[in-house]
Write a structure and sequence with these properties.
Blueprint (H helix, E strand, L loop, with lengths): L1 H23 L3 E10 L4 E9 L12 E5 L8 H4 L3 H11 L6 E5 L18 H16 L9 E5 L2 H12 L6 E3 L1
Parallel strand pairs: 3-4, 3-5, 5-6
Antiparallel strand pairs: 1-2, 2-4
């Protein structure tokens, strides 16, 4: 009887410890955060992934700006792209280091990551003048070029290409 009780106790402790370790291995996604843009004269939304351990440390992290495609918005990478699952797995396996991933919304009345030719909707100016400084002031990111990357799909790939060409001093890596 005592052996059976000890086995149950050890099994319970193992399960509790395993659940705690699994929870500690997960990052956190905030699906919708906002900032007020003076350039665009509107609230702008973004999603953000914070790596495992972000809340428990004062460490600063590299940042990846992940741009969505046409017809999608800032939640696409979270809902359909499984950004949390993929990032958590890559970090746990050691194929990627812990990082912050920012997914801005470029699906508005004027769709795209570019400045409008008529100067009435300057998303690229917003991205560099307001979004990046907001992220660097709000979250613990490493702001040097070599710790900042950009990637995107479809329309986001176009934004990635143009941003990396217009501002090569800003990104250590670009993957359109």
């Amino acid at each position: 009887m005592k052996t059976n009780t000890l086995v149950r106790l050890l099994a319970t402790v193992f399960v509790l410890c395993s659940a705690t370790l699994l929870k500690a291995q997960q990052g956190t996604v905030y699906e919708t955060r906002t900032l007020k843009s003076k350039i665009l004269n509107m609230e702008r939304r973004y999603s953000i992934y914070l790596p495992p351990g972000y809340e428990e440390t004062d460490r600063s992290y590299p940042v990846l700006y992940l741009l969505h495609g046409a017809g999608d918005d800032h939640t696409g990478w979270v809902q359909f792209g499984q950004v949390q699952h993929i990032a958590d797995k890559a970090i746990a396996e050691g194929t990627a280091g812990p990082m912050i991933i920012v997914m801005p919304d470029a699906d508005t009345s004027v769709r795209g990551y570019f400045n409008a030719a008529n100067g009435k909707f300057n998303y690229e100016d917003f991205f560099f003048t307001e979004l990046i400084p907001h992220i660097e002031q709000t979250y613990r990111v490493r702001s040097e070029r070599r710790f900042r990357a950009i990637a995107g799909l479809s329309m986001g790939g176009g934004g990635t290409l143009i941003y990396s060409l217009h501002r090569p001093e800003m990104f250590g890596a670009a993957a359109p």
